[in-house]
Amino acid sequence: MKTGQILLLTLAVAAAGLAAWFFLGPEDLMSDSLDTAEHPKWQFEATEARLIGDLEDPFAYAGGEATRLLEGSAELQLEGSDLSGALRASVALDGSATVLAASIDPSARLELRGTLNADRVLAVDQAIHGETGLGDPRLPEVRALLAGTADLEVFIDGTPRGVTYRSVWSVAEALRREDGAIRNQGLTFSPLLRDSTVFADRSRLEVTLLVYSAEPSAELDSVILHLVYGDVNLLAAPEDIAIP
Question: Which of 26, 71, 143, 152 could staple 92 via S-S, CB 3.0–4.6 A?
Answer without folding.
Answer: 71
